[in-house]
Amino acid sequence: MKVFVTGASGWIGSAVTEELLGAGHEVLGLVRSDASATRVEALGARALRGDLDDLDSLRAGATEADAVVHLANKHDWSDPEESDRAERAAVETLLAAIEGTQRPFVIANGLSGLVEGRAALESDRSPAVGPTSDRGGSENLVLETGGRGIAVRFAPSVHGVGDWGFVAFLAGIAREKGVSAYVGDGVHAWSAVHRADAARLIRLGLEQAPAGTRMHAVAEQEITTRAIAEALGEALDLPVHSVPAGEAGEHFGFMAEFFAASMTGSSDATRALLGWTPSGPGLLDDIAAGAYAGD
Q1: φ, ψ for residue 228 (rounded to 5)?
Q2: What pLDDT, in 10s, does the model give residues 199-212?
Q3: What is the mean predicted confidence (pLDDT) over 37-58?
Q4: At what angle do helices 80-97 and 55-64 cross, to 10 degrees?
Q5: Distance from CA of residue 234 to its chain's centroid?
Q6: Distance, CA of 216 to CA of 202 (rounded, Å)
Q7: Which DSSP string corresponds to 195-259?
Q8: Terminus of the chain with fewer CB atoms < 10 Å: N or C?
Q9: How far apart are alpha carbons 59 and 41 in whole angstroms?
Q10: Residues 6+ apart with CB under 8 A from 114
């Protein structure tokens, strides 16, 4: 297949690009800069300049390809409404470009906010519906359009050497504050998956998953936030302590919302459907090995 990947030079996107190329597929990657184009082309893919607001580039990439993997997102924590607006417009454009076909369309989402009080299941429908909801309601839009829509829901930690996601933010905060902290009693939990395992899941989904599939990129279902903070403290040689919930915003900034919440999911149905068996190191192992040690 020729696969159009948005966010192809990103943390997950570059791993997906490598995985697809290694399996014999072609990749056309959307990139925002010359530097990103160079990185994508060095992997063996073709680069298409554009971004989520460049609807013409999105349309051209999707029209040319046999499949779409949409990973890019503005992730503007200071203006989430703009991120949601851009995501909705981009997904509508991509869907229109492949309308009437059965080309696979993989849409990225997260586990956050899906359910409360338990691990999310693949059978749980996203509560985000409509253009003003989280991510512009893009998961439901893709799954309900009528083509071969597939959702991949990522664990809050997609980890490995070079990660610049949530755990990297926590490591940066710990270095800045001189302490690796957790909120309250630290019993909130996150799921995690190694970057390479997440990339392999996306390839398997493109090749095998039927329309309407929700895949959970989850290797470890529950790691407590206290365990994450303790592992970072050990790796960074910093003390570890609790921050009261009322002070979490001051200490963690935008990360407080996430680190004071449980974001977990089961991947049992995903594994059974696709034969996906995660094999990468666990999150705490990656932290101990120095993946977040910085300079």
Answers
A1: -65, -45
A2: 999 999 999 999 99
A3: 96
A4: 40
A5: 26
A6: 10
A7: HHHHHHHHHHHHHHPPTTEEEEE-SEEEEEHHHHHHHHHHHHT--EEEE-GGGHHHHHGGGHHHH
A8: C
A9: 21
A10: 120, 124, 126, 127, 153, 265
Rg of the chain, C-alpha, whole Å: 19
Q: Do β-strands 220-224 and 189-194 pair in parallel, antiparallel, or remain unpaired?
A: antiparallel
Question: Does residue 3 or residue 74 have the better pLDDT?
Answer: 3
> What's the rounded Cα separation, in Å, for the pair 249 and 243?
10
Torsions phi, psi for 51 (to 5 deg): -150, -175
Cα–Cα distances in Å, from 262 out to 102, 201, 222? Answer: 36, 23, 9
Mean pLDDT of 221-239: 98
pTM strictly above 0.85: yes
Give me the residue label for tokens 């999310």: 120
Per residue in 95-111, pLDDT (tens digit) is 999 999 999 999 999 99
Give the largest CA-CA distance in the chain.
57
Instruction: Give me 60's structure tokens.
Output: 């051209």
Domains of the chain by range and CATH? 2-157+193-218 (3.40.50.720), 160-192+221-265+279-288 (3.90.25)
